[in-house]
Amino acid sequence: MIWSRLLPSRTNTAAAASYRAIVSQARQPAFYAAYGVPDSVDGRFEMIALHMFAVLHRLKPEPAAAGFSQDLFDIMFADMDRSLREMGVGDLGVGRRIKAMAQGLYGRMAAYEAGLAAGDDELAAALRRNVYGTVDDAAVAAALLPSLCGYVRALVRHMAGETAEQLMAGHVTFPAVPVPGNPVEIPGPGTNGPV
């Protein structure tokens, strides 16, 4: 039992590579500069959660991916724990915040899942509550929502084209991030070109 924690498995190594790809895509400057996502701890969490959702949504129908998905989830929250500690959150507060973040991720995943099934109005409402929840200017957020909805749908379509085996091997790619109102796209690392 202790050896499994000390010696990373292939699954953990692949899940760590997948998580790094998720974080890299979530940090694309276009989200913060062009999409108006707050460049804050909350905004960055929202973008990581959104991309984590896309990967887990793709893996959900794959029974063989359950362990990998759990490893990916565990790695994400180990990173969040480490980040909170680096920001100076005390030991007593970290556990409470991690629990709230995990519950928040589950809620976001359910909302995005429902939004994809229902249509752009419901997806936009979920993105408004979560991604733009701390944005004071509702008009700005409303103007950017259609572009972000389009990106999320393109992201999910892109993930549908990825094999579960590829994702579980740590080979996660993401579509380029289109700049709203501009046909020029900002490619991210590991992108497969334009959406």
Structure description:
The protein is an all-alpha fold and about 200 residues long. The chain has one domain (about 10-185). The chain contains nine helices and two strands, in the order αααααααααββ. It has helices at about 1-5, 10-25, 30-35, 40-60, 65-85, 90-120, 120-130, 140-160, 165-170; strands at about 175-180, 185. The protein has a two-stranded antiparallel sheet. The longest helix is centred in the middle third of the chain and has 28 residues, at about 90-120.
Q: Strand order across the biggest sheet?
A: 1-2
Helix coverage percent: 55-70%
Largest β-sheet summary: 2 strands, antiparallel
SSE order, one letter for each helix or strand: HHHHHHHHHEE
Rg measurement, Å:
17 Å
Q: Tell me the fraction of residues in β-strands, as a range.
A: under 5%
SS-based class? mainly alpha
Number of structural domains: 1
Distance between the termini: 44 Å
